[in-house]
Amino acid sequence: MSQHRLRSFAVGLALTIGFTPAAPAGAASTRLSTVASARDFLAGDLDGTTLTSDGRLTLGSVFTPRAWPEEAAGAVVFGAASDAAGRVYVATGGGQGRLFVSEPDGTVRVLFEAEEPNVTAVAVGPRGEVVCGTSPGGRLWRVDPKAKEPAKAGSPAGETGEAAVWSLAFAPDGTLFAGTGSKGRIWKAGRDGKASLHAEIEDTHVRTLLVLPDSMLVAGTSDRGLVIAIDAGGKLRTLHDFARPEVTALASAPGGGILAVATSVAVPQLSQQRSEPRQATAPVVSPTGAEGPAKDPVPQGTVSISTTTSPVRPAAAPSTSREGNAEVVLIAADGFVEPSWILPEETVYGARWDDGRAALLLATGPRGRVYSLNDRKLRLEAQVDQKQVVSTPAVPGGFAVVTSTSPGVQRPAGAKAAGKGTYLSSVRDAGRLSRSGSLRFEGTVPKGATVVLSARTGNSEKPDGTWSDWVRPGPSGVFVAPPARYFQWRAELSAAPSGESPVVERVEMSWAERNARPILENVTVLEPGAVFPRPGATSGSAVLTVTNPDENGAFAGLEPAREGTDATGKKLFRKGFRTVTWKGTDPNGDALRYDLEVRREGSTPWFGIRRDVDDAFVSFDSSPLPDGRYRFRVTASDKNSNAEGEALVATEESDLVLVDGTPPVLTVLESRTEGKSVVLRVKAADALSPLARAEGTVSADRWRPLASADGALDGREEELTLIVPKPDGPAFLSIRVVDASGNSASVSAEYPAEFR
Questions:
Q1: How many CA atoms lie within 13 A of 597 on its CB side?
Q2: Which is deepest, 229, 273, 370, 375, by most CB within 10 Å?
Q3: CA separation (Å) from 271 to 1, 73, 283?
Q4: Domain 519-659 adopts which CATH fold?
């Protein structure tokens, strides 16, 4: 049979990621979205397709939905089982306990109507007998599959007196075991219609039961998540204790092992009341492990069987990606427990071993998927429109899908319908308005089979009626759709006349983001003298508060950065320097280059200080600038990431900043002796900056702070006085003043020569 290995959207057409049409002004670089692994493909939705564990998309089973009868309105599905003839029995509740049957032709009818509001479990025995359990009261009912009157279809099969029957399992000899809640008991019933207590487990609910080929009984519990083996005498042995609270399924594995599934879910409490025909009672959320009063035997705790109810049609249960998670382990015959798989974002509601696939089938939610698991390889077998798949009973042609809400039971549609299938990708967010690009796939297409790709665009996160129509790529590989923020692609697979399926292994979709203007923020001029050393500095350095060091140590920190160290964000002091910082970002992720300019107040032209820098700061010597007030302007450009003529710029200006390089003027007003002291009085004046600090010293001793005559050193003109004890010999009395721009000046008087 001829097959073709393709990198195309149709046989013989190789698509390119580049675009044939000329890019419009304002275009940015091309972005590429690739789906090439099982994890990638699982983000989308499948219809009539399947996904192998190694990420190969191919045709799979198609399931035909059938609507439930009116009696199903408001029903909550608890479980399902099938018989050898292909009938599927579905246990429901939520106000009226009913057992529905889906016939092999797909029709669904009410088979049995219980006296209790919930039918919580169903099983088919080795001779085809059908038994179900109810809540509250924990009664067992034997149901005639051929009965025509639901009210007369059941006969008592045992009384447990428990709050609910959660699970049923038949032994090869026809003995029936019933797992109940909320006291963790297992009951045994024979064909005489009498039930007796078989075992009691130290947990709340017996959620699932399994009879092994050697007749050993195994139970899975909730709320402790235990797997317990029970021998013929009722003796218990714990096989595994899950970290998750509920064991939802048990299955026999080849070689005598047990496959156990545990999950974490938030589940409601059962209703114990009947509802009027048009008014269903919704389950009420119950805290895990809570117990009701003795007169109210409604089961409490965690049991994952619930959905919301509706008075018209069963509605999908609300769920999120955090609804729960599940774990599968293999318990070997010798008791060794080996992890098999973890589903981090999906809940497993049921599981069974499928001999035809030689794999464990997992019924999951909230995406309505059925997986098969074998030898630590997970395959997506099917996906349906409903959110929760609760069971996958065996039927001729494969398995049926039982969902928690209408249409309830979906059966495989047959080989003819399985010749076509669709895959719908998850929505790709370009982040902003973008132009459509190319679409291509890699895979294998047998002769006569097809893979058709198409794409659509829209500006709402969820596709709706405002999105574009589906469009196919042209001969050049470009698909032409309206510019938009969101993109989605679709693959339609058709089998060859021989029945061979095409295989898709990789899909690439590209788009061109519209170039967006850079964003500039927080243009700030740091205090005089604060600098960032160039080595090791990067863009985006944070703005920090810096206090100018004492003049004695002004240059102490200016040594070069040591090799291999990161000086990013480290601030130093350098007299006469100024630093301008900013924050620049680009919506497209383009690299930015910056220009820094300055303009004096009252002047028109801007003068360049630095050009084409990639750091988000510039430290420069401000001494060439005449004293005055200035504004600094930063221009950001994405020119290095875009074609000529398509780059965009953004500008931002600082507030007015004082540049003052002139020190204060000091004038000696008086130098005199006064008793045992000497006094030096000085007038300090500055043309632009307020005075910030004044200090005095004698003969180069330690500088000591001086107060101004008015008590506040904050003006541009101040009077300062230095009074010290009369020196024993010749000395210099000095006063130093520093203005707010960091300029300093000092004056001295010689004692006794200049003192009177």
A1: 14
A2: 370
A3: 59, 15, 6
A4: Immunoglobulin-like (2.60.40)
